[in-house]
Amino acid sequence: MVEFAKIIALFQGENQMTEMCYYEVLEVSKDCSGAELKKAYRKLAMKFHPDRNPDDKEAEDNFKVVNEAYQVLSDEEKRSIYDRYGKEGLEGQGMGGRGGFGGSNMDDIMDMFNSMFNGGGGFGQSRRDPNQKYALDFEIEIPLEFHEAVFGCKKEVDMTYKTSCEPCDGTGAKDAKVENCEYCGGQGQVLMRQGPMQFAQTCPKCQGQGKTIKEACGSCSGKGFNVEEDTVTITVPAGVDSGNRLRAQGYGNEGRNNQRGDLIITFAVKEDENFVRNGPDIYIEVPVFFTQSILGETITIPTLDGEIDLELKVGTIDKEQYVFPGEGVVDVHSGRKGRLIAQIQLILPKKINDEQKELLEKLQESYGVESRPHKSTLDSAFDRVKSWFKS
Question: What's 1-104's CATH class?
Answer without folding.
Answer: mainly alpha
